[in-house]
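Worked example (supplementary).
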Amino acid sequence: MNSTEFLAEVAWNEQGLAPAIAQDVHSGQVLMMAWMSPESLRMTAEEGFAVYWSRSRQSLWKKGEQSGNQQVVHEIQIDCDGDTILIIVEQIGGIACHTGREHCFYRSLKNDNWEIQTPVLKDPAEIYGE
Amino acid sequence: MNSTEFLAEVAWNEQGLAPAIAQDVHSGQVLMMAWMSPESLRMTAEEGFAVYWSRSRQSLWKKGEQSGNQQVVHEIQIDCDGDTILIIVEQIGGIACHTGREHCFYRSLKNDNWEIQTPVLKDPAEIYGE
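After joint prediction of all chains, the assembly is encoded as:
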């Protein structure tokens, strides 16, 4: 049986959530930022796959459940204030973003415009079987 | 004169803020996560040094103003939802964390405990001249 005392040491925000940054263990690329609830962090730690909290759906979000693009957790870190989580992951399928890109930070500020810098690797319709 | 239309494309949260992740341009290390207001993002883009919004002080926070540990901005990225910012920076002085460490994510989950994994490089009292 696992102890879950580490969950109480997280400074959850007023919604009971904490931002969780996912970083690729191989490339170091920051893949995405999502939110975790205590339950999703517990599941992430126990099961070894990233589980977030979907604020739009108000439910646990097992990343990759539908797409197969799961995130295998190598390490779970927390910051000095205890209010932000960083998970180091192996991104199955090489696609973290729902747009079909490697990661979500595909727009970069150039001459005061957000310019797309990262190609779509797979059609989202194909990923989600729509 | 710069256009600031890109600020309106950010999906600021109900407090008018967005989380901003700072990543080291050389090592790829995720250094910290803080918050930006439209004004702090504008200043970050214009001045080339990271400026955050301090939620505790409710004021602009020019990172490194006191410590000298400024962050020189190489790139400003935004995610698919437009609600999270990633800045790629050069960390002056090699210390991003107020605890005197290279970065803020110095605790890692090991056997259900948050264990410190990263050494203090400089006494905070020395950094902040207390």
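Two points are worth noting when inspecting this output. The domain at 5-94 of chain B is CATH 3.10.20.810 (Ubiquitin-like (UB roll)). The CA atoms of residues 41 and 65 of chain B lie 16 Å apart.
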